[in-house]
Amino acid sequence: MPEEFVPRDWQDRFARAYQTNLKKNFLLEACTSAGKTGGTLNIFDSFRSAVGWRFLVVVVPAEHLRRQYAVDAQKLFGLQLYYSGTVKRLGRLPTPEELLQQGYQGLVVSYQWLASSGNAKKLASQLQNTLDGKVLAILDEVHHVSSELAFGRACEIAFPDGTVSHRLMTSGTPFRSDNNKILGNWLTYVPAGENVYGCVPDFRYTLSDALRDGIIPFFSFATMGGKFTYRRGRAVYEGATFTEATNEQELSKEPHA
Predict the structure, then answer these.
(1) pTM for this structure?
(2) How far apart are CA 194 and CA 64, in angstroms?
(3) Which architecture, in CATH terms, is 9-213?
(4) 179: phi > 0 → left, psi -120 to 50 → alpha, else beta; which?
(5) How far is the C-alpha of 112 from the C-alpha of 226, rounded, in Å?
(6) Among 70, 73, 80, 103, which is least packed, fewest CB within 10 Å?
(7) pLDDT digit string, tens, across residues 14-63
(8) What residue ranges do the domains of the chain occupy?
(9) Rounded-to-integer distance, Cα 86 and Cα 119, Å
(10) Is the CB of residue 108 less than 8 Å from the CB of residue 114?
């Protein structure tokens, strides 16, 4: 039997905000250890009947996280999410139709899997043929994804408008150091400087919020002295101190190669 999921205050407010603003693409920004997994699974479990979702697809940023996400889904909500990958007898991943027949409510894959061997296109076709768009896609830690790179292209192929009814994306840090947009067609960006844009979440739960609520313990950072060498591509930065290295943009300037 699953444990009874008792939402934290922020998870409850998040669910109400999601219900009030049931948009196609929703970005949750929540800090590490806040409970993003429980919060997003609660959305699927709470609203799937009302919204008409018949299947859940979760994409995680590492292979080992597939099992962890599925275990949490079963433990907290009694949801059965398939995560085991290729079935030897079939020589492939089970289709959504096969998983539904076996009592599963969804599937957990990685961005790596989605971006390889035409998997994104196959999954999109299977979802469309079986579920007629009645699918929620959860893209976990979506800052790993960029429309300019393989993971982003795979997501756009796998989860177009006709294939999923809603996309729920999560991140503790909704930005990329390479200055590429995170799925720019699905998320909201506003100017934050010259040729710089900031991603706008639909719901935020910050580190200071988690400290205030006692979800994470108080912590402090010690300032370290000393010099370091920093390499970025062909550029080498020598003799800088930690206090002089003020930001990524400054370090991106190539003084010499």
Answers:
(1) 0.84
(2) 39
(3) 3-Layer(aba) Sandwich (3.40)
(4) left
(5) 38
(6) 103
(7) 999 999 999 999 999 999 999 999 999 999 999 999 999 999 999 999 99
(8) 9-213, 220-257
(9) 12
(10) no
Report which secondary-structure segment, H or E, holds 192: strand 188-193
β-strand partners of 136: 56, 166
Say which residue the tokens 């909500």 belong to: 77
Place of tokens 């080498």: 236
Rounded to whole angstroms, the Cα distance separating 10 from 29 reads: 12
> Exposed, middle or buried by CB within 10 Å (0-12, 13-18, 19+), for 36?
buried
Query: CA 239, 243, 249 angle in degrees (round to 5)?
Result: 85
**pLDDT tens across 110-155, in order?**
999 999 989 999 999 999 999 999 999 999 999 999 988 999 999 9
The Cα–Cα gap between 122 and 226 comes to 52
For 91, the token pair is 């020589």
